[in-house]
Write the structure tokens for this entry.
Amino acid sequence: MSFPAGFRWGVATSAYQIEGAAALDGRGPSIWDTFAAVPGAVANGDTGEVAADHYHRWAEDVRLLVDLGVDAYRFSVSWSRVLPEGRGKVEQRGLDFYRRLVDTLRDNDVEPFLTLYHWDLPQALEDEGGWRNRDTAGWFADYAATVHEALSDGVSKWTTLNEPYCSSVVGYAEGRHAPGAREGHGALAAVHHLLLGHGLAVQSMRANGVAGQEFGIVLNQSPTVPVTDSPADVAAAVRQDVLLRRQFTDPLFGGEYPPEMESMYGALTDFSFRHDEDLSIIGQPLDYVGLNYYYRLHVADAPHREPDPAKRTAHDIGVDTSQLPNVQRTGMGWPVEPEGLTTALTDLKARHPHLPPIYVTENGCVFPDTEGFLDNDRITFLRDHIAAAQAADVDLRGYFCWSLLDNFEWAHGYKHRFGLIHVDYQTQERTPRASYHWYRDFIKAQRQDS
Ligand code: FCB
């Protein structure tokens, strides 16, 4: 394999999944602290209270990523560490933590890729309606400007949102993620306010007038495949695609929401939360787009779970995605289909010819651990997916593996381990897996070739 000179090789993490120190140095609670405390919400009653204790062990973790040889590190800032109430009073100790991290990365020639929102809304803002509330978009832009003012001398890659699909549909319609709501109108309003918040945040950071800054968003992109070529299954796959991909990419890069949403939702929502001026804010020109890829979705037509359209949740669109092809599956049960990464990249570019450069901002897997952490399945997975990324004829600038460390895998708790590095949650000891050594050697070989 060979990638152009300057291609970024990185790893990714997020704040709530690794930091721990949930109540330290003035941090306020986020919706994930609240959700994890609800019995049954997270497997095994796990919470992010301690996680991988990265808040205390960040220097060791930076050392591990420097030894890995990556030249980019994607992490997220915890909004409620910086603004414990979500707005108003700034907690300097929170900003200081990220300042130390950024400076140490820079000292070691690792470029920070900072994400402002990886799902951890301050609880104080959820108490005011969360992403259902249009004001949250403005509060997000204020938070973005605050972090940008503090760190833009060390950070030039700014991602507003990670996977707004999950923050809206999974959090407000499916209820599998914080805040655990099961709604129709509220979840679609959350989609819109997240996108609006993204646009306003880009505007507010650009208004700081710092040269050389790049702004982007990270989207999860699962291509959809109808399980048969019957018109019903094909139509179901289109609905699924509208829900997961086009509801986000069309307004971001095409200036409009998918027209199919009207017929998909009918009486469910009046969309009055969309104001005329919003689409031009959402469609701010971007410097890059991040694409997360884990699996393809195989879609069949199915009856709605809730017959009464007025009571339907936003993900109840008459589809069944449980019929998987006969291929290897990861520990998450996800089908291993590297070709889906090629399609995800080429679809995005084909649909939006003026798309900015792309980074693969997450890709990775879990498999049960073996003796000595010889995770050959992970190595094969990564190698095949990197090859699939290369096969796409798009302007691809980098690849980030998810994840540097084992971490809190949301509603699954600590059961599923995505790390190149194993974490013993009793002792917090870090042990690089074979995949860590493989990725290090792979990056080294790439640099020698280019
Ligand atoms: C993505 C999330 C990331 C991690 C991986 C496995 O959807 O962005 O935090 O949980 O899945």
The first strand starts at residue 8 and ends at 12.
